Amino acid sequence: MKTTISVIKADIGSIGGHIRPxxxxxxxxxxxxEDEGRDIVYDFFVSHTGDDVAILFTHSHGVGSEAVHxxxxxxxxxxxxxxxxxxxxxxxxxxxxxAFSGNVxxxxxxxxxxxxxxxxxxxxxxxxxxxxxxxxxxxxxxLGFADPMYNSGLILSPNxxxxxxxxxxxxxxxEGDRLIELNTPEDLYDIAAxxxxxxxxxxxxxxxRGTGEIAAVVSTTRLHNIAGKYTGKDDPVMLVRVQGAFPxxxxxxxxxxxxxxxAGFMRGSHTGPLMPVKMNSPVSYFDGxxxxxxxxxxxxKGKLTEPADAFDHPYWDxxxxxxxxxxxxxxxxxxxxxxxLPYSELEYGGIVEKMKKLDPKFxxxxx
Length: 367
Ligand code: 13P
Ligand code: 13P
Ligand code: MG
Ligand code: MG
Fold this sequence. Notes:
Elements: E1 2-10, H1 23-36, E2 43-49, E3 52-59, H2 66-86, E4 110-117, E5 123-130, H3 138-146, H4 153-156, E6 164-170, E7 179-183, H5 188-195, E8 201-208, E9 214-218, E10 237-241, H6 249-253, E11 261-264, E12 270-273, E13 275-277, E14 291-300, E15 303-304, E16 308-309, H7 314-331, H8 350-358
Parallel strand pairs: 13-14
Antiparallel strand pairs: 1-3, 1-4, 2-3, 5-10, 5-14, 6-7, 6-8, 8-9, 9-10, 11-12, 14-15, 14-16
Helix pairs in contact: 1-2, 3-5
Bound molecules: 1,3-dihydroxyacetonephosphate (2 copies) and magnesium ion (2 copies).
């Protein structure tokens, strides 16, 4: 049976700054889909990660379905009405341009979808990150799919011996989707050379070379805005199929113990370590640190199980403590050097104005 799994995510308002949405807002989004979406989708699940609300759908309409996207949009509009009623911060942030809250992010919701031929058992992982951008998934995907130091199945299982095809997008290109396809294991060094640059080259999807099936998909598309201009960062979502021809769940999760430094954090303008958190976690310290949640599901005949909260385990408490230490250490140097993103990546226009004001005040000595 063919099933489409879609996750559509937006920030439509949050309590106390960019921390988390209200319970009423989340309830309203879910109610809207319950009331209006029953004929459109097989099943759905609503969660939040930091201030972003994500709707996970299963349905029969394929990737890019107008009906499903409209359902999500309308549910977000319904949730935005609650956000406005409650006076939440940044109400409708990712839906309305007039809800501009001080940075250039948020032209529209983020989307990751895949149409699959359901296996008799179909386990998959849904990741949602806040206060970072899609390049945050580059390193964990590379290690989880292509490095036997993390993916023992590359050695132990014949199912993965042919490797994977990585589709990598150049998100600096704004005229359309500029993509390259590279294969593991033979193109490993080329893949690494690109993925090193998390702000420019982003994994869009991964396919099994053994079966040709889609393995992973990341929300990269809205990095080009409607006007054909770079919009900056987005809090990215991702779907990853696991087991069988794909890595085991634990192999995909393993690289998240690094807490690697990513772009985002406060005002989308800093560097911070990516912290694996439990489902429905807020952010906190310095509007962060950047967080990622992972909900594991099985889908069968379009029906979702309840989620298993993949980072809700004592092991990840230890990781979270390490990541907190990494965050604190880098924050000690405030705005200096690599603690803040380079000028080209800064999300706030204020710095541009400041530089314009300062520029004429420079004098060349002796002239
Ligand atoms: P089980 O024997 O528990 O199914 O585990 C197999 C496996 O591949 C775990 O990574
Ligand atoms: P969000 O993109 O999650 O709304 O965060 C914006 C921000 O400026 C946090 O400091
Ligand atoms: Mg926000
Ligand atoms: Mg957010």
